Amino acid sequence: MSFKLQLHLHLPTHVLQTQHYFLSSNLFPFSHSSPCSFSISLSSHTTTPYCFPPSSTTVDSDMTTDEPPVRMVAIVGHGAVSPLNSASWEQVMLHTAKRLKWVDEGYELLVFTDKCIQSNEPLQRELLKADILVIVAVTNKESVNWIKISSKTIENVICFDSSLDLKNKLGGYEIHNEVRGSIFGKILGSSELLDKTKDSYEVVQTVTEAWDRRSSDDIRFCLLLLINAYIRPVPVLKNLRAKGFSTLNCMLKNCGRQVLNCLLDPNCRKALQCLNKCSPVDQVCNYRCIASYESANLEAFSLCVLQKNNCLELEAEVPTKPYVPPMVEFRGQNLSHEIAEDLFVGWLGSLQWSWRVVAGQNPAYDQFPCQYQLFYRGKAKGSFWYEPVFQVKTFEGQMVWRRRKYRVKRGKVYGTFYFSVLDNGVISNEFWTIVDVANDLSWGLFHYHGAAKAAGQSYTGAVLVSPDGAFPNERERTKIVTALEKCEIKEWELFFVDNCSCIDPPLGTPEGSSFHSVVQINDPNWMNV
Questions:
Q1: How far apart, in whole angstroms, are the C-alpha atoms of residue 229 and residue 431?
Q2: Domain range enclosing 118
Q3: Least confident segment among 33-42, 143-152, 163-172, 405-414
Q4: What does the angle CA 84 – CA 87 – CA 89 come to, to the nearest 5 degrees?
């Protein structure tokens, strides 16, 4: 995955850019389909209203603290369906609670449905301790009235997709809802109150925009942003504060020529203008800008400003959570480095590509159509390479092909690898795991953690792949579900790649490349794909 060039230099302290986190999901059933059409039939899960807080669950996180826990309570409409592939809001928020623990073990989110007000003692007890109350899809009149009375002492109350009778508070100050029910509205009160809460406008706008993007990453980001703004600093958001004139001074002092060349280059200039029109937390918009207008001058600009001189004073580390174990055997043989590399190589040699991507979790990357993967052994001894090829629809409406090149090194554990790439001037380092691959190579699941340190971005993700880009046959469903669970993946988090109209992809490998060393590809059913 790639970095997002962040050029918004004048944001208020509270307004922070989201980190780039990739995949996590829980699947199906999906019907087998062509790459151009698929149907999703999500399992209907019957859930008991959560009216009793669970015992404390320990989840390893990248950040722990001796500070008191941040206590959050979510009340969701009973049976309310989210726009995330029709998962219930209860499912979505329960999964969000787990994903918050990956950031900091001290972030506690308890989820109740509004049906719990009928036996309200546990819910009432938790509300008395809550730092933040999140209300999602609550429209029942009785529930609304109960929440209005029971939440009076909570300093931070945030409502999403709920009754307009429910009011939002940030830092103890009330905020009106807009007609559409988002939390971005006009702050009531005197000019003095407006002065005291001026930063809330930026926080509210950023949270609303993120929520409206309807992804699991953005939902978690909304809560992290609120914690950071009103409870205590969130370390993973520290990169995203405005740097102001120190950044400009660094750019002009160290990268004057690159800045000038970029401004004189129409394509590079368009990229910068495009980026500054995007919300700083809209990964889809930002990466589309970079992919639409990439050029040699944009790469030189980023290489100097971000990678070499770190003018934005950013940093990021490759995440370690969630831990995803690699597969341990293939076709009855214990996994080895050679077998694992062959599984990446996949169908290359029999087909013109190793794999085609079926789905992933991150909309910033999975928005791009026609994704091909090329894994191959290089001419130099021990070298191994990965080249993704994909289409981008530019802001001018043109479809263009893009290609990246990653160096791949073996990890200590069989089935794990270290990837690195220079993408538009910024180095990204990633840790990949082969989670599972079918014996007939009809599908595979690869997980990764990554970071673009100079861009201040870290992310996690995974890709589900097959030879033709279509979802695998239904008979493989159980195995795929198991593999996804190893990645902490939920079905409603997946974004499907559009694999239609993939005309003349720029495939091919360098002269002297080699493919398999151990695994044999001998399934004739895929030879005519």
A1: 31
A2: 70-231
A3: 33-42
A4: 90
511: domain CATH number is: 2.40.128.20
Residue 3 and residue 457: Cα distance in Å, rounded? Answer: 7
Say what the pLDDT of residue 297 is: 97
The answer to whether residue 255 is domain-embedded is yes
Q: Could you read off the pLDDT of 488-513 as tens digits, one per residue?
A: 988 889 889 999 989 999 999 999 99
Q: Tokens 């859930």 identify what position?
A: 47
Query: pLDDT, tens digit, for every residue of 70-111?
Result: 999 999 999 999 999 899 999 999 999 999 999 999 999 999
CA distance 116 to 113: 6
Tokens of 399: 């479809």
Q: Residue 203 sits in a domain of what CATH number?
A: 3.40.50
DSSP assignment letter at 491: G
CA dist 440 and 272 (Å) reads 46
Asked if residue 63 is part of any domain, the answer here is: no
Last residue of a domain, one of 213, 231, 249: 231
144 and 248 inside one domain: no
Domain termination site, one of 191, 206, 231 = 231
**Structure token pair of residue 228:** 């950071």
Q: Compute the distance between CA of residue 203 and CA of residue 177 in angstroms, rounded to an integer.
A: 14
Which residue in 251, 248, 291 sits closest to 271, CA to CA?
Answer: 291
Q: In a 10 Å sphere around its CB, with 0-12 CB exposed, 13-18 middle and 19+ buried, how is residue 491 labelled?
A: buried
Number of domains composing the chain: 2
The rounded distance, in Å, linking the Cα atoms of 61 and 57 is 12
Q: Which pTM does this prediction carry?
A: 0.83
